[in-house]
Amino acid sequence: MPGRAAVAAERAAAAAAKAGGEFEAAFEAAIAKGMSEADGDKFTDLVASGKISEADAIVELQKMLKPVKIEVGDRAEDIAFKEMVKKVPTIMIDESGVDALNEQYKAAGVKPIAAAPNGIGNAVPEPAVSCDHCGLPGAKSRCSQCQSSFYCGKECQVAAWKSHKKACATFKRVCEDAGREVVAALADKEKELEANERVADIGQLDNEGAYRAAVRVGLWPALTAILQEDAHGVSARWERRQPCSFMHWIVTSLFRGERHRTDGGFAVVDAGRVVAFLTAEPGGWDALVDACIGVLKMALCSKKLPKQLYMLAHRCARDCWNSLSMMLVHEPVVRAIVGAPGDAVPGADVFKAMAATLGSTINSMDNEEVEARDPNSVVEANVFHIAAMFSYWARELKAPCDFDKLLGLSSVQRAMYRQMAKPSAEATIKKGRSLSPAEYGKAVRK
Ligand SMILES: [Zn+2]
Ligand SMILES: [Zn+2]
């Protein structure tokens, strides 16, 4: 039975609709049906800023009014899930990819890149850049000297050489210096640099020449070490009001696939770089996951953070976990993680270890304090999502284990996992990048 207040709000909405305020009416009705205030504000902002039309907003709002259709069986866990769905917000909007960071990329005037498709199959998708001579997209060859200039082929490269010649040697030297500088900062053994200073220049590796130079002088071991440090030290740093997560910096710079993208976000990762890292560093994946868990604990369990800082931490945790998700859409990345390159069938070991780590992370989030700090269970859903992606790959690559069972979830968690995480994970892998809220809704309501 709807409460009295809800009935009143619906009546008010009906009256408003008659009066002509269709958007307001749809809005009021959605609030009456339990749309959170935060989601409401987002909608109002979208309409006010002209990002969506009022008519489209009405359609979206009306969709929210439709009851969530979920196949519910007669098992106890399904019934518990049905009860839970009544209580939790049905729309989980995570706009990690649309924020101030994107504005920075745009302001910096970075060149667009055609986003690589997802990497199902045994090839690492290559980002496509435009030719520095003729400007056409899809440049495949790059100057072997400086690694900084891209061309569609020999013809353009030869034509450009006359003007490029002078800059090339300088480019090369600048790249070498930048690569060495970044690695030295990351590996600052004496810790003379502040955490922020140690990573602030990692953006220099956007440049392929600097990136390659850094790899030559020990980027990967330095990265593993700094991620391991994050797993232990991230909360302490934030509590000292020095909010810096190495993991966050790394995934939003070094591994960000859209280094030249102008329309925002890091909805894809540079799978080639991730594979290079994981192949070079046997402990690389564990270091990434541990760093993500360090950030998550800081965002969810640290009572010492003031509100403003906590919100930043929450955002940081979402970005980090989202980046893992973007890595796991690529089969070559997964194969590098589980040590089964080419088309080899992976063993069960890495899947078992992941199930244990993710299962215990999920269980450690199962308390009231976390609930209060993670409204709408956004971060919690991120962790479920990563587990579901591993489950997908265990099945797809025919690993000899029952991943879902190994997670050791409670019956309520299992229902949430099966009904929400698994379909959204599969849809994400098929799409090869983050789902829009509408696509997410479609996936979980199937
Ligand atoms: Zn060209
Ligand atoms: Zn060159």
Question: Could you give the topology of this structure?
Answer:
Blueprint: H1 4-19, H2 22-32, H3 37-48, H4 54-65, H5 76-87, H6 100-107, E1 141-142, E2 150-151, H7 154-186, H8 195-199, H9 208-216, H10 219-239, H11 246-251, H12 271-280, H13 284-301, H14 307-327, H15 331-338, H16 349-364, H17 368-373, H18 378-396, H19 403-406, H20 411-431, H21 437-445
Antiparallel strand pairs: 1-2
Helix pairs in contact: 1-2, 2-4, 5-20, 7-9, 7-10, 10-13, 12-15, 13-14, 14-18, 16-18, 18-20, 20-21
This protein binds zinc ion (2 copies).
One zinc ion is lined by residues 143, 145-146, 148-149, 164, 168, 171.
What does this structure look like?
The structure is a single chain. By secondary structure, the chain is mostly helical. It contains 21 helices and 2 strands. Helix 13 (284-301) packs antiparallel against helix 14. The longest helix is centred in the middle third of the chain and has 33 residues, at 154-186. It is globular, with a radius of gyration of 24 Å. The two termini are 26 Å apart. The model is unreliable at 1-5, 68-82, 84-102, 109-116 and 260-265 (pLDDT under 50). The structure holds zinc ion (ZN) (2 copies).
